[in-house]
Write a structure and sequence with these properties.
The chain is an alpha+beta fold. The chain is about 15% helix and about 60% strand. It is built from one helix and eight strands; from the N terminus they run αββββββββ. It has an eight-stranded antiparallel barrel.
Length: about 150
């Protein structure tokens, strides 16, 4: 009888951790809608170096939302091909939980597809640390829209 109880205890623990692991591995979707300000230096060879400050709102696949701010730099050659993008965003929900992510993209400056790496999070967002997100970005004037599909790597 005791062996049966011990066996069932380990079985239930195994089932619990399996369900927990599956729930953590679910896809996580984030959307940003932001306006931005960009200070640009145009070099003699027509390449550009710019500093970006952006702010707006975000929402995710868990029905959470809040303000988001991004800061960073980008460099592009004379053909508007990105050479370097180093932008970090901080998004916060209504309870003060935060998520930080870094953008990486190797397309042109007018939009394209890239990767977000989730650097860290507090509260409910802590489980998304080290997730990678494939995102698409579109620009219109000084506004941009991003949609990202994130997965645990």
């Amino acid at each position: 009888m005791w062996i049966y109880i011990i066996y069932m205890k380990y079985f239930l623990i195994l089932v619990f951790f399996s369900i927990y692991k599956v729930s953590i591995c679910q896809e996580y979707i984030i959307e940003h809608q932001m306006s931005f300000d960009e200070k640009i230096f145009t070099l003699k060879d027509k390449s550009i170096f710019s500093i970006i400050n952006a702010s707006g709102v975000w929402k995710d696949s868990n029905a959470d939302f809040g303000p988001v701010e991004c800061r960073g730099v980008r460099e592009a050659n004379k053909n508007k091909k990105l050479l370097n993008l180093n932008v970090v965003c901080e998004q916060m929900n209504a309870t003060g939980d935060k998520l930080w992510l870094r953008a990486i993209r190797n397309t042109d400056v007018d939009g394209g597809v890239g990767i977000w790496k989730i650097l860290d999070g507090t509260g409910k967002f802590a489980i998304y640390k080290d997730y990678e997100c494939t995102y698409a970005v579109s620009f219109a004037s000084n506004v941009y829209y991003v949609k990202a599909n994130c997965k645990n790597k």
